[in-house]
Design a protein that fits this description.
The protein is α+β, with helices and mostly antiparallel strands and 581 residues long. It has three domains: 211 residues, Sandwich (Immunoglobulin-like), CATH 2.60.40; 163 residues; 106 residues, Sandwich (Jelly Rolls). It is built from eleven helices and 32 strands. The protein is elongated.
Length: 581
């Protein structure tokens, strides 16, 4: 790969960015001409150039650049010969940007799947930022249209050579795909050009060789990720005006399913990080790479949506089909799965990975359960039940089974998420969602109850789960202070499972409250006000956990969550105390 004027040895191009409210802060090389500015900077990592470098006789480098940037005219090759300097003048560049889309497939019948490279299609790179650069100076900028087309006019002074780059970044809403293992550089595709009218088509390839990826040709990944998330955002924008906050997505071919330093690629799994408000996507060839797993991508985007526009009280942590989960987690993961099928063209979820040397997949049909069932414990504590329930609430009930005669539409789905689900005094569970849904105009509560019954959920009437005995039993009302209670948890499962959690509803007094929980095993307590953490204690591995709130809002509803961490099987007692102070 040859370098554009102003790029460092890794092909990184500095570009101007927003201040502290916009781009993630990073260190900029002193070699960069931007290094003397006071702004926080971002860099563009050029995935591929459409031509060889001036004076470069290395056939391997030239071939690689041309192959990686194929897809249109000879402009890249002609431009590359003169890319080092320009005499200056006015010019224009017109072209189209595309990428290889590889469908991730899964058959619920055979329970197998893969990436179907034989079914690869060319898709437009939509709404992506395109720039004409002279060295590291942006001369002109635009974005691609819905078909991937772009046109730019520019005026270049004599000096450094010219190039065109398309960033893995949408203009509106702002989504950008960065390399977390290379200083958070923004991925991009580019080519050198000469002054004058130019036609330049850019194409990002998947790079698959038949058994593995060719790293030099693996240029489609960031654009596939970007396009899946742009699809999700556009679906909501088609039905409601939405102000999406900027989203940073981290993908690298070094992102592996191991925990550790994210800057080295040890991201554990594809996930949304609520503390960073960023998404991380796996990319390791031969282990697990999710760039073409559209449902995985949109699932994680759904958590971004929850965190920024709705609300997510989920404790997170490990989960799998068949688990009896804390209902907060069951809703969060079921919602993420359902949303991916609602916003994408197919209802079959596919997640590809390597099993040894074989590229395979697991997945599920978002609507139809297999035989034998993949939901052995249906109800409010099952992410699979929640997933299929939410999808059935959305899909066209007119052509469905007798139990599914509901079709709420994406607009209503959005209204519930950003309205009652965001502001509920309860924890965010399927109970709070259904209570909010039934309050929406035109929703047939009787039809909703019929659908709930199919998934072993009672006719929910309140955000606390009234109507579903099991969900309502998660909550205990605290009526007066001091309050003392002995309760029992069940260990031997992760702390995010139903048996390790209890919720307590209490009203603020206007004064302070003191909370404590005692057990021979490890427990923790946390108080929430509409999902916001008010206070918590989880220090010791046994004994008493205590914290105080110096003041509480009078008559406001707080939820105290008691969580156990006993790893060995068996019941264990916890003494809970709440008092005024």
């Amino acid at each position: 790969m040859c370098l554009l004027e102003g790029a460092d040895k890794n092909g990184r191009l500095p570009s101007a960015s927003e201040g502290s409210g916009g781009w993630k802060e990073m260190h900029v090389s002193l070699r960069s001409v931007w290094g003397r500015t006071s702004k926080v900077l971002a860099t563009s990592l050029i995935l591929a150039l459409g031509a060889g470098c001036p004076g470069d006789d290395d056939d391997d480098d030239d071939d690689r650049g041309r192959d990686a940037g194929t897809g249109g005219s000879d402009a890249g090759t002609d431009a590359g010969a003169d890319a080092g300097t320009t005499p200056g003048g006015s010019g224009s560049v017109t072209g189209k940007v595309t990428y290889d889309f590889v469908p991730a497939t899964y058959s619920p019948t055979t329970r197998s799947g893969t990436l179907a490279f034989a079914q690869t299609t060319l898709r437009p790179v939509r709404n992506a930022v395109v720039q004409v650069l002279q060295g590291s100076t942006v001369l002109a900028s635009t974005e691609t249209d819905a078909q991937g087309n772009y046109h730019l006019s520019y005026l270049a002074p004599p000096g450094a050579g010219l190039s065109v780059v398309v960033l893995a970044k949408t203009a509106s809403p702002v989504i950008q795909v960065e390399d977390n293992t290379d200083g958070n550089a923004v991925w991009a595709l580019g080519s050198g050009i000469t002054v004058g009218p130019t036609t330049l088509n850019l194409h990002a390839t998947h790079g698959w060789t038949g058994s593995s990826y060719n790293a030099a040709l693996r240029t489609a990944a960031p654009f596939a990720i970007l396009d899946s998330m742009y699809t999700a955002a556009q679906a909501f924008l088609a039905v409601r005006p939405v102000n999406f906050p900027m989203l940073r997505v981290n993908w690298s071919p070094d992102n592996v399913p191991q925990s550790g330093d994210k800057a080295t690629g040890r991201i554990s799994t594809s996930h949304f990080d609520s503390e960073e408000n960023e998404i991380y996507i796996l990319g390791k060839d031969g282990a697990d790479s999710d760039e073409f797993d559209s449902h995985v991508i949109v699932h994680e985007w759904g958590h971004y949506f929850e965190h920024n526009l709705s609300r997510a009280d989920s404790p997170g942590g490990p989960h799998s089909r068949g688990d009896v989960l804390d209902p907060r987690l069951a809703f969060g993961e079921g919602y993420g799965n359902a949303l991916s099928a609602i916003l994408l063209p197919t209802k079959v979820y596919a997640d590809t990975y390597w099993a040894g040397a074989t590229l395979t997949a697991f997945g599920f049909d978002m609507e139809t359960a297999p035989t034998p069932t993949d939901d052995p414990s249906p109800g409010a504590f099952s992410e699979t039940s929640v997933m299929r329930l939410l999808y059935d609430l959305f899909d066209d009930g007119a052509t469905e089974a007798a139990y599914d005669q509901v079709s709420i539409g994406l607009g209503t789905f959005y209204d519930v998420l950003v309205g009652p689900q965001r502001t509920t005094p309860a924890m965010t569970t399927i109970g709070s969602f259904i209570a909010g849904l039934k309050a929406q105009p035109g929703v047939n509560a009787t039809a909703v109850n019929t659908l709930l019954a199919h998934y072993n959920i009672g006719p929910v009437t309140s955000p606390w789960g009234d109507g579903d005995t099991s969900l309502r039993s998660m909550y205990t009302q605290v009526t007066s202070y001091p309050y003392n209670l002995n309760t029992t948890l069940v260990g031997g499962v992760d702390s995010n499972k139903r048996s390790q959690n209890r919720y307590y509803i209490l009203n603020g007094t206007g004064g302070g409250l003191r909370f404590s929980a005692s057990s021979p095993y490890d427990v923790g307590i946390a108080a929430y006000l509409q999902g916001s953490l008010a206070g918590a204690a989880d220090i010791g591995l046994s004994g008493t956990e205590t914290f105080s709130l110096s003041s509480t809002q009078a008559d406001a509803t707080y939820i105290l969550v008691l969580t156990g961490f006993r790893q060995t099987a068996g019941s264990y007692d916890v003494s809970l105390s709440i008092s005024s102070q």
